[in-house]
Amino acid sequence: MYNVLIIDDEEPLREAIRIVGDWDHLGVEHIYEATNGRLGMELLGQHPIDIVMVDMKMPEMNGIEFLRVIEKAHPHLLIIVISGYNDFEFTRQAIQSRVVDYLLKPINRQDLNQALRKAVDILESRKQSKDEFISQSITLNMSLPKLKEKLYVSILDGSFKRQANTALLPLIGADRPENRFGVIVLKLLNRNEIRRTRFHGDVELMDFAITNVLAQTSDERLRCFSFSHPRREREIVSVCTLAPGQEEHMPLLLAQVAQKAVANLHGLFSMVVAAGVGKLCTDVVELASAYRDAKMLIHSTDVLKLEGESILHTVPRQIGLSEEMTWTDRLLSIQKDAQTGQANRAKVLLSDLLKQLASGPAFRLQDADRLMREFHFLLREAAIELSTPVSASNQEGTFGELGRVVEGDLSADFTSFADYSQRLHRMLELYIAGVQHVQAGNQPFDITEIKRYIDRYYFEDIKISFFAETYFLSREYLMKLFKQQFGYGIHEYVQKVRMDKAKELLGDSSLKIQEISDMLGYKDKNYFSKAFRNYYQVSPSEYRVSLQ
């Protein structure tokens, strides 16, 4: 069991760390708190502390002063630094003090637990390592990443010898046959300008900041280790390791991570990047080939199309022996536009993709299934990332996470390309509605969203539980709000829309009763006729005769 010390003068941040930390799973027994570095030093003298989380801006003794003292007084203590995006002047001391990780405010659950897991892994390796070379040559903090970097560089340049490095394979997950690997390469096109204007010419500080930002893009499924290539000054490499069970989604996960990396570097530092994503590898040695592929993609960048914007290349997907179709970039663009408020543009992009598929020589069923799965997966991942628990005092209950907002029915029937297209558009619309709902915060829920949905999809099997899960509101609250607004219950309104539409369709003498029943979503003609009679006290046939 381990003990953790949190040093920060902001009580809400200390409380947040206590709440979101996965302490039991990490094996943490005691958590101590201090409001400044001086009190932190006192607690270190009173208790056996293994990991310290310290803010860089504090009264009395700030983070820089604390790190300098701790480096001499407790050289084996594991430190996790907490700071803001714009506080990169503090990272110089963090580098010198060889901290385990550097967390950026606001801290989220994933980043916090990832940093703590890194520290716990180091503590575990101190206890369990039997290899004399590793225990003597690794200082088990900042030098551990340096060793991993050397290992990866030797793999990428083809000089890696598995037999000679067997003891080091566990450091990069290469000792587990079930693991999969991928690589992302980023070429920094305006590196010198950014180094000069944003980092006062300090290359080491800039590289640290860049790799630290990239570290924020990985998660427990796809862990990415990023470093500046020691022999190519404009190149950043991110090697990603995929845990078992996610093989089907790894190409999309890699593309998504690359997209986030490119966006974050541009947003934070105005850095223009050309990025390439290598193919999936079943063996770590294959990364050399994937690395070359990613570099070739970068080299294919059309300079005429740069115009000051970053560009991302992904590996094309084969759909036939002689045909190629790439939709990963399209899906990423659609998701990005939907998330950033460009809903109409996202819909146009999806329509364009579907038009391209429709105009091609063939679109196989297995590809249609794969595209739908990948689109669903991408929107779901983005929804989880967007999720924000928000208290809603004006509503009954609270919003939960946005993780299930795009629960598209992947097993649903589609008997034509039009049906298929409609389902993809429906998935996108649900995601857009979920994004708007989260971004609205504490604003009252717009119940007309449900009315508009019913007006459009009245022919489907509409259930209140579907709306409750989509908008994270209770079933009872939705029913009550809908009736207050429109004078009908939700089921009543579905019935009303169907019956109004039935009247309209019965006016077309060319349509058979069975066809109208199908168009309205009823199971069979008899069921429709019974429902129509109950609603209007006449059968569909009698109503049609009355019209004549």
Tell me what you see in this structure.
The structure is a single chain. This protein is of the alpha/beta class and 548 residues long. It has four domains: 1-141, Rossmann fold (3-Layer(aba) Sandwich); 145-161 and 171-315, Alpha-Beta Plaits (2-Layer Sandwich), CATH 3.30.70; 324-444, no CATH class; 455-548, Orthogonal Bundle (Arc Repressor Mutant, subunit A). The protein has 23 helices and twelve strands. It has helices spanning 11-20, 23-26, 37-46, 63-73, 91-96, 109-128, 132-137, 143-156, 191-198, 203-215, 250-269, 287-299, 328-339, 343-359, 365-386, 417-439, 448-457, 464-471, 475-486, 490-506, 513-519, 525-536, 540-547, and strands at residues 2-7, 28-34, 51-55, 78-83, 101-104, 180-188, 222-228, 235-242, 273-277, 311-313, 317-318, 324-325. 32% of the residues are buried. The model is unreliable at 130-142, 316-325 and 388-409 (pLDDT under 50).
Features:
12 strands, five-stranded mixed sheet, single chain, Alpha-Beta Plaits, alpha/beta, Rossmann fold, five-stranded parallel sheet, 548 residues, globular
Query: What is the CATH class name of the largest domain?
Result: Alpha Beta
- Report the structural category: alpha/beta
- Largest sheet, if any? 5 strands, parallel
Q: Give the oligomeric state of the chains in this entry, treating copies of one chain as homo and distinct chains as hetero.
A: single chain
Low-confidence stretches: 130-142, 316-325, 388-409
Dominant shape: globular
The number of E-state strands comes to: 12
Q: How many whole angstroms does the radius of gyration measure?
A: 28 Å
Q: Which CATH architecture of the largest domain?
A: 2-Layer Sandwich
Percent range for β-strand residues: 5-15%
Span between termini: 84 Å
**What is the count of DSSP helices, taking H or I runs of 4+ residues?**
23
Overall mean pLDDT: 78
CATH topology of the largest domain: Alpha-Beta Plaits
List the domain count as a whole number.
4
Order of strands across the widest beta sheet? 2-1-3-4-5
Helix fraction? 40-55%
Organism: Paenibacillus ottowii
InterPro entries: CheY-like_superfamily (IPR011006), Homeodomain-like_sf (IPR009057), HptR (IPR051552), HTH_AraC (IPR018060), HTH_AraC-typ_CS (IPR018062), Sig_transdc_resp-reg_receiver (IPR001789), Tscrpt_reg_AraC-type_HTH (IPR020449)
Main location: cytoplasm
Keywords: Cytoplasm, DNA-binding, Phosphoprotein, Transcription, Transcription regulation, Two-component regulatory system
